[in-house]
Amino acid sequence: MVSLCESGTNMVKKKASNFIPTLLEQCLGLMTELEDDAEEWLSCDNAEEDSDEENAGIGETSLDRISCALGGKAILQPFLQIIPRLIQDTQNWKNRHAAIMGLSTIGEGCRRQMEPMIEQIVDTVLGFLQDEDCPKAIIALYLPQIMEKLEFVLEHTFKQLLERGKKLVLEQVITTIASVADAAQDQFVSFYDRYVFALFCFRGLL
């Protein structure tokens, strides 16, 4: 189905659009298949090494390919109708994790459609990064992906936040970066130089 979306994009959009929500749900379902044991996660050097051939990795890769192939106009609205159920699942952090990672995964294919919603997306992502039910060790393992998404947020919202004076959002961004740094500890060192300038700029606005 992923290959069909890539090779027959127009056909899927015109004749099989009603199957898109089911396809997205299948990808997100695969992305929930994570290990509960943080120690097992930490036994590998990075998240990609552990997930390349696992269902969660397959789900994430498939979602990325589908969103890039079909684009935001076809993907974003069906996706946004699915993820509230996952994000609001207080019993299973894996569903919340899949929803947030899904938001970041479709970012490339849906960037133009997502930009007007960036503040809502930022609030959602920041809330998960402070989720006490998700082990900090797992957040630290996904540090490169998390920091990549935070960098995307800073790049695309910094000017907008400055103009609008959204101090609450600025404070949330700073608090979240600090939380990730605390969880990652030594692993955060390589990201320090990329964020310190933006953080100093933020500090001057608060």
Helix tally equals 14
How big is the Rg? 17 Å
Mean of the pLDDT scores?
A: 75
- List how many beta strands DSSP finds: 0
Domain module count: 2
Largest sheet: none
Q: Any low-confidence stretches, pLDDT <50, length ≥5?
A: none
What percentage of amino acids are in beta strands? under 5%
Ends apart, CA distance between termini: 49 Å
Helicity level: over 70%
Q: What is the H/E string?
A: HHHHHHHHHHHHHH
**Helix-and-strand structural type:** mainly alpha
Quaternary organisation of the protein chains: single chain
- What is the 3D shape? globular
Describe this structure in a few short sentences.
It contains 14 helices and no strands.
What features would you describe in this structure?
- It is a single chain.
- It is globular and about 50 Å long.
- The protein is built from 14 helices and no strands.
- The protein is mainly alpha-helical and 206 residues long.
- The model has no long low-confidence stretch (mean pLDDT 75).
- The longest helix is centred in the last third of the chain and has 22 residues, at 143-164.
- It has two domains: 1-115, no CATH class; 127-205, no CATH class.
- Helices cover 75% and strands 0% of the residues.
- The chain has helices spanning 2-7, 9-15, 20-31, 38-42, 47-51, 55-70, 72-87, 93-105, 111-114, 118-129, 136-141, 143-164, 167-184, 192-203.
- It is found in: Cytoplasm.
